[in-house]
């Protein structure tokens, strides 16, 4: 069976393999080789037979879909592409996964490339369509299954294969080693200690109240986010720590459909929980990290309880609690005065039900909070989820999809968008770059630091003396 140097069915398990794939700039040779990549039809047929059981929900959903089209307007990509019938969720899944199942895996290379382009550029797995289907069919879940089939066959976007390889090698979506991570923690604590006396970022502290875990992009590209988290824990008087290993919450492997790597990734976090014995875990401002580790992760790890080894919370839950209990107190004079709106992340709002936490936070920090329409669990995907933000092959489609979020924000009249999720933050940043509508966007941490009341004993000495 023809397999290329870059595009093949091999998993990225070594640094040498990863560096080789990275050397193919923008995946140019990778996609060229994909055109000649043979389909292992026997493997595909066997995989379907083993995983798509007679009574499985995916098989049932494929069979009971009434082709009514009621899911159409639930999809932001359908709306953003002028109601293109080929963007109707039921059509997208029936014309890809449905055909693979119907033909028992006897499909061509050309067809699987079409499936890849559909699975990664026409669906972000936001799961919104499942709310509007009269039969409860969730195309997002089925597209996740399709992505897994395609990954095993080698038909996966170049960036996604790289991302899954990063998780296999570094247990992080980026090449951040344990040493890099610990050094960054020490660097940030030292960098901000003059302004925040006694500030620490404790590493591997046992029996802490909070185990804090992050998105690898924070230590890699904006370590100040880690410092901001430390400052807020410091002000709140929390007993917290970060693990030296198992600190990364995200899962590009989930976006790629590499379920084996998903298991490896999430188990590294669970091992840190068991090793350090904290009371609970708090996940940084990232939606898919929360979904991967807290919602999906227990099942990947084979935990029959369906729960993480210790209670686990998204950052908005901790912030809402800290404001409610007075651990963080807002200076009324420093509350946000201008109109401000909030981006409801698919992964911790729709898929985890944390909309009330978000509104509670806004009631403390904003004087003119304006909802997007629709909002809460009905909000549209930011336009960048499911890996959409990071794939060059589909940048044109991603940019078109941003129009729905653009129009939602414009309708609020707000120039400031709070977005406690990395993918949402990136999508809204890129939205402004593409459409220039004059908005700003922010995580919660920097906003909170600007408005919290700092106890006198935590202020620098010269400030206390003023």
From TrEMBL:
Q: Which residues form the Cysteine-rich domain?
A: 340-424
Query: Which sequence ranges form a coiled-coil region, renumbered to this chain?
Result: none
Q: Which organism is it from?
A: Desulfonema limicola
Q: What is this protein called?
A: HMC redox complex, cytoplasmic iron-sulfur protein
Q: Which PANTHER family match?
A: FUMARATE REDUCTASE IRON-SULFUR SUBUNIT, HETERODISULFIDE REDUCTASE
Q: What keywords would UniProt list here?
A: 4Fe-4S, Electron transport, Iron, Iron-sulfur, Metal-binding, Transport
Q: Report which superkingdom the organism of origin falls in.
A: Bacteria
Question: What SUPFAM superfamilies does UniProt report for this protein, alphabetically?
Answer: alpha-helical ferredoxin (SSF46548)
């Amino acid at each position: 069976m023809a397999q290329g140097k870059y595009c093949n069915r091999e998993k990225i398990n070594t640094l040498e393999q990863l560096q080789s794939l990275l050397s193919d700039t923008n995946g140019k040779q990778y996609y060229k080789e994909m055109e000649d990549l043979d389909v292992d039809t026997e493997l595909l047929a066997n995989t379907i037979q083993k995983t798509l059981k007679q009574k499985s929900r995916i098989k049932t959903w494929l069979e009971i879909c009434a082709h009514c089209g009621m899911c159409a307007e639930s999809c932001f990509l359908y709306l953003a592409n002028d109601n293109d019938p080929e963007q109707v969720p039921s059509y997208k899944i029936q014309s890809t996964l449905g055909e693979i199942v119907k033909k028992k895996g006897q499909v061509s290379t050309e067809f699987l490339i079409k499936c890849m382009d559909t699975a990664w550029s026409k669906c972000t797995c936001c799961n919104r369509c499942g709310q509007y289907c009269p039969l409860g069919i969730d195309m997002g879940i089925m597209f996740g299954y399709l992505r897994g089939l395609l990954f095993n066959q080698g038909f996966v976007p170049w960036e996604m294969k790289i991302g899954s390889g990063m998780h296999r090698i570094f247990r992080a979506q980026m090449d951040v080693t344990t040493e890099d991570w610990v050094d960054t923690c020490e660097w940030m604590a030292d960098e901000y200690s003059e302004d925040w006396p006694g500030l620490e970022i404790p590493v591997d502290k046992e029996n802490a109240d909070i185990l804090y875990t992050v998105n690898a992009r924070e230590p890699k590209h904006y370590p100040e986010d880690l410092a901001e988290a430390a400052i807020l824990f410091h002000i709140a008087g929390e007993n917290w720590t970060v693990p030296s290993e198992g600190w990364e919450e995200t899962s590009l492997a989930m976006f790629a459909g590499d379920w084996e790597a998903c298991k490896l990734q999430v188990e590294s976090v669970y091992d840190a929980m068991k090793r350090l014995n904290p009371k609970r875990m708090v996940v940084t401002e990232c939606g898919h990290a929360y979904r991967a580790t807290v919602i999906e992760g227990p099942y990947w790890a084979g935990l029959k309880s369906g729960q993480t080894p210790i209670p686990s919370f998204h950052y908005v839950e901790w912030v809402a609690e800290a404001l409610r209990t007075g651990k963080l107190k807002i200076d009324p004079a420093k509350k946000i005065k201008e109109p401000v709106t909030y981006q409801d992340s698919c992964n911790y709002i729709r898929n985890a039900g944390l909309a009330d936490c978000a509104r509670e936070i806004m009631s403390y920090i904003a004087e003119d909070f304006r909802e997007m329409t629709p909002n809460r669990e009905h909000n549209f995907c930011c336009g960048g989820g499911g890996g959409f933000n990071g794939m060059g092959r589909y940048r044109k489609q991603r940019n078109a999809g941003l129009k729905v979020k653009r129009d939602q924000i414009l309708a609020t009249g707000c120039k400031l968008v709070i977005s406690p999720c990395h993918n949402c933050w990136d999508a809204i940043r890129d939205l402004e770059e593409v459409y220039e509508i004059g908005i700003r966007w922010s995580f919660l941490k920097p906003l909170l630091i600007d408005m919290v009341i700092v106890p006198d004993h935590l202020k620098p000495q010269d400030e206390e003396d003023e």
